[in-house]
Amino acid sequence: MPLFMSQKINSEIADPAFYVRDIPVYGRAILSPMDGFSDLPFRSLTRQLGSAMSYSEFVNAIDVVNRVPHMEQRLSYLEDERPVVFQIFDDDPQRLLEAALILREKNPDIIDINMGCSARTVAGRGAGAGLLREPAKIERIFASLTKAIDIPITGKIRIGWDDDSLNYLEVARIIEQNGGALLAVHGRTKQQAFRGPANWDAIAEIKDALSIPVIGNGDVRVAGDVQRMRDATGVDGVMIARAAIGNPWIFAGLDREQVSHSALQEMVVAHLRAMQEFYGDQQGLILFRKHAARYISPFRLAKSERERLLTSETANEFLALLELLSQESMAAQPI
Predict the structure, then answer these.
(1) Fewer Cβ neighbours under 10 Å: the N or C end of the chain?
(2) Could you give the CA distance from residue 34 to residue 245 in angstroms, rounded to a whole number?
(3) Of 52, 61, 115, 114, whose CA–CA distance to 84 is shortest?
(4) Nearest CA-CA partner of 267 in 297, 246, 242, 237
(5) pTM of the predicted model over 0.85
(6) Which pLDDT tens digit goes with each residue over 130-143?
(7) How far is Cα 247 from Cα 245, in angstroms, rounded to an integer?
(8) Which residues 6+ apart lie within 8 Å of 77 measured at CB?
(9) CB 216 within 8 A of CB 238
(10) Cis peptide bond upstream of 83, omega within 30
(11) Residue 44 and residue 274: Cα distance in Å, rounded?
(12) What angle, rounded to 10 degrees, do the helices at 200-209 and 168-177 form?
């Protein structure tokens, strides 16, 4: 499967930015695991541009244990994506252990426990950010997984359920004390979801309190925010989520306005073709639309033009119309 072949930094000419236990990580910026986005095609192109690790879309431990067929596609990866991280979620410590043991057979480098998803269907059942309300359960999860599994077990958290329960330091220490090898921190509460400012001071507190690597997440909107977060918090790495959609060049240190029209065209073609190769022609085109909407967001398109583009029935129709509309958009912009 050709798809995108990642161009990882050569370890012979660059020192690792940090280690996850004994696993070197070459780079500071990392694509965040995002349901519906962090699939193999998108991960691979961001790796080409500089993302330092490959986190899978999060997967339900129930589906893993039941060996639901679609899990195979969600957990597909390329060898040159390593280090590869499988992220799982559940509210049941025993089922998480069973799922992790099954996933270990697929030879990832790391298994990550999601304790940050704020979606009602996840957090509402006590999984994802819902686990933050039960630190004792988090302790059981990490104690059992790190004892049973030989690869690093890591976690991703929010800073608390709400402003009245900011227990991030307690949870962070529990994870480290029970063998966790790295902690990623989204600097918002579950209640905030993605609203309001991320609390970088809380991330800095966690970094000061732990000896394992800490990755910061939240309010990274432009390329310069990666270093700004590192300066403000001291984190070892920075996760980029929504800002990477439509601008994967952020991993190369570029903001969208710095990307040439030819580079955009090349990326859109490559991304779309990879989606079709991975998912099939029709499904790949349909699933690409959410990316396409962000790629074209800077263009001055009428609503009817945008709708026509995003409902194209074939890849060739989409690409031809994209070229026409983008040229018209650029011509309409003042010099």
Answers:
(1) C
(2) 10
(3) 52
(4) 246
(5) yes
(6) 999 999 999 999 99
(7) 5
(8) 40, 43, 54, 56, 84, 108
(9) yes
(10) yes
(11) 10
(12) 30
Q: Is 117 marked active-site?
A: yes
Amino acid at 16: P
Q: Walk me through the domains of the chain, giving residue ranges and CATH numbers.
A: 18-256 (3.20.20.70), 260-332 (1.10.1200)
Active-site pick, 110, 111, 117, 235: 117
pLDDT band at residue 323 under the 50/70/90 scheme: confident
pLDDT tens column, 156-176 = 999 999 999 999 999 999 999
91 membership: H or E segment, kind and range: none
Tokens in use for 213?
A: 């690597």
The count of C-alpha atoms lying within 13 angstroms of the C-alpha of 181, restricted to the half-sphere facing its C-beta, is 21
The C-alpha atoms of residue 39 and residue 288 are separated, in whole angstroms, by 11
- Token pair, residue 9, equals 């930094």
Give the mean model confidence (pLDDT) for residues 302-321: 86
